[in-house]
Specification:
Elements: E1 19-24, H1 26-29, E2 32-33, H2 37-44, E3 57-58, H3 61-69, E4 74-75, E5 78-79, H4 107-111, E6 114-116, E7 121-124, E8 138-139, H5 140-143, H6 145-152, H7 154-166, E9 171-176, H8 177-201
Helix pairs in contact: 6-7
Length: 202
């Protein structure tokens, strides 16, 4: 199932390169978030793990096979919600993720709230700017360091954070091609779902 969302960077010969140049926007990286254990337990209860209207946990093709093999229901690239709660089957009552820091934690969940816009710039998913945790606390690049580690690799993520710690400018970072493709694929799944849903409402 192809879910390419045609970023402008797709014009590069992705077959012959191991990394893709990604613009790190200083402004986006410095958006503030209050996300920590205490806040999750006492305030938000893991609100970011819930969708708007429905839970939408998109999976890479490899993850889809893994979850299906594990007995989970996967439909059109999305992990089906718990039948009783309507929430992600991995979400605990406490609000925490039951597969956090395990091989079962989806790529998209770890990468969030970061994604790429059509120009290949690392930005925050819009929905995250509507949560209670947004607007105070620490900069996104510090709070969601694990997301950067996943997307860029620990060495490049460290370089990104060092530049953001010491300078205030946009710059280019190198993202492994497989991670780039994963982001395109997952965002493509959501785009296809939204388009299909829009047609059904008409």
């Amino acid at each position: 199932m192809s879910a390419d969302n045609h970023h402008s960077i797709s014009c590069f010969n992705l077959v012959s390169t191991k990394t893709v140049p990604i613009k790190i926007a200083n402004k986006w990286a410095r958006n503030l978030f209050n996300c920590n254990t205490e806040y999750i337990l006492n305030v938000c209860k893991g609100r970011c793990c819930e969708g708007t209207g429905r839970t939408m946990v998109s999976l890479t093709e490899k993850e889809q096979r893994k979850y299906i093999k594990g007995g989970f229901d996967v439909k059109d690239g999305f992990l089906s919600p718990n039948f009783e709660t309507g929430q992600c089957p991995n979400k605990l009552i406490s609000g925490f993720c039951g597969v956090h820091d395990t091989s079962m934690q989806p790529f998209g969940c770890i990468a969030s709230p970061f994604t790429l816009n059509k120009n290949g710039t690392l930005v925050l998913r819009y929905r995250y700017t509507k949560f209670k945790c947004y607007g105070n606390g620490l900069p996104a690049y510090k709070v969601f360091r694990k997301s950067l580690d996943l997307l860029f690799g620990k060495r490049e993520a460290a370089r990104i954070c060092h530049i953001l710690d010491t300078e205030k400018r946009d710059f280019i970072a190198k993202m492994p091609i497989n991670n780039y493709k994963n982001l395109l694929y997952l965002d493509g799944l959501k785009r296809i779902f939204s388009e299909r849903r829009g047609k059904e409402k008409k």
